Amino acid sequence: MTRANPVTTSTFASSLRLGACGGQAEAGGAVSIRNVRRPIASVNAPEFSAASLLGAANLMLFLLLAFVVGITRAAEPVGMVLDVVGPVQFIKPATQDVTMFTALQPGAEVGLGRGAKLVATLYAKGAELSFTGPARLHVKAGSIDIVYGAKPQERLLQAQQVQASTQGIARRQQQAAISMRNLDPMVAPAHQSAVRETNPEFVFSSNLEGLFLGVYDQEGHLVAKEKLRAGGSQRLGSERALKRGESYVWTILEDDDTPKTPTRKTFRVLHEDEVRLADSSRPTSSASVAQWALYAGLLENLWLRAEAKVIWVRLSQERPGDPMLARFAH
Predict the structure, then answer these.
(1) Can you tell me the distance from the alpha carbon of 34 to that of 22, in angstroms, rounded to the nearest whole number?
(2) Which ranges of the chain have pLDDT less than 50?
(3) What is the 3-state secondary structure (H, E, C) of the chain?
(4) Is there a single domain that holds both residue 84 and residue 150?
(5) Same domain membership, residue 242 and residue 283
(6) How many CA atoms lie within 13 A of 296 on its CB side?
(7) What's the structural domain count of the chain?
C-alpha cells in the first residue's frame, strides 16, 4: 500500500511564513525575503484564509485517521490454527505453546520442531496450509512466509465455510469461558441453539416425568404442550410441527400452565437451505482433524451446538494435550 507523505508541523509552519512574508523560494528549498516590499497587512493571500486553514487541518486529521486505520487493519488476524501436533511454539512476540484455534497475528513468528505439524487457515487466500517441522514461519499481514523449512501443503476452502467456521469457533470460545456449575434439568435443545427438524426431540431430567413440556412462539403464545413421559426424552408430535426459520422458547409447566421452573430456553428451527449446507459440508470419515474442526465451527455458527459438541469431544480425544479442545468438549 502506498502511503501519503505525512504533512509535518514544520512544513506547514514554513509555508505559512512564506505566504505571510511574500517571500520567494530559492534553489534547495531556502526562502528569500530580500524582495519583500509590502507590509504584511497588505498581502493578499486568500490561500491562507480561515477556510483554507480549516481545510488543511481536516487534511491532517484525515491522514492521521488513515494511519490509525492502517495500523488497526494490520493488527487483524491473518488466520487461525486448526491443528497442532508435536512441539510448536510462538517465538515472537513471546515464547509460548501454539494451541488449536489460536489467532495468527501479523509480526508473530512460529517455530516447529522436527516432526511437528501445524495446520492453519490463511484468510487472504481462503486456503488451509499444512506445515511440517523443522520450520520457522513469519506471519505477515496477508501471508505466512517460511524463514526456513519445507513448503506447506495447500488446500483451497470455500469462503462461506471459512467465515462461518471462524465465527462459530469464536462463539464457542466465549461459551467455553462460562463455567456451568449447576445441573440443568432441561438438557436439549440448549439455550440459543438450533434444531434440524420441525418436530424436535426434547431431552430433560427423568425426575420431571408427569409435568408438561411447553413451547411458545416469539409472541408468547403457547403453540405446543405435551405431558412428559418416562425416559428423559421425547419428540414433539408431528401434528404440532413448528415453522422453519422461526424461533421458539421451551420450558416446563404444571398442568394449569404455571411454569415449574424460571428457566426458559430459546431455540430456532433451521431453514431447509441451512440443513443442506450442514449436510453438504460434512467431511468424510477419513478427513483430517483440521477439516473436522472447520466443520464443527460451521455447526456452531448454525447454532447446532449439540452436533458440534460430539465432534469437539472426539477431537479432544485425538488431541488430548490441547487445552482449548478440552474446554470445547466440556
Answers:
(1) 10
(2) 1-48, 50, 53-54, 57, 61, 64-74, 178-182
(3) CCCCCCCCHHHHHHHHHHHHHCCEECHHHCEECCCCCCCHHHCCCHHHCHHHHHHHHHHHHHHHHHHHHHHHHHCCCCEEEEEEECCEEEEECCCEECCCCCEECCCCEEEECCCCEEEEEECCCCEEEEEECCEEEEECCCCEEEEECCCCEEEECCHHHHHHHHHHHHHHHHHHCCCCCCCCCEEECCCCEEECCCCCEEEECHHHCCCEEEEECCCCCEEEEEECCCCCEEECCHHHCCCCCCEEEEEEECCCCCECCCCCEEEEECCHHHHHHHHHCCCCCCCCHHHHHHHHHHHHHCCCHHHHHHHHHHHHHHCCCCHHHHHHHC
(4) yes
(5) no
(6) 27
(7) 4
- Give residue-wise pLDDT tens across range 131-154: 999 999 999 988 999 999 999 999
Q: Write out the residue range of the structural domain in which residue 305 sits.
A: 161-179+273-329
pLDDT at 75: 62
Asked if residue 175 and residue 299 are part of one domain, the reply reads: yes
Question: Pick from 101, 104, 87, 85: which is nearest to 328 by CA?
Answer: 101
Alpha-carbon distance of 143 to 121, in angstroms, equals 10
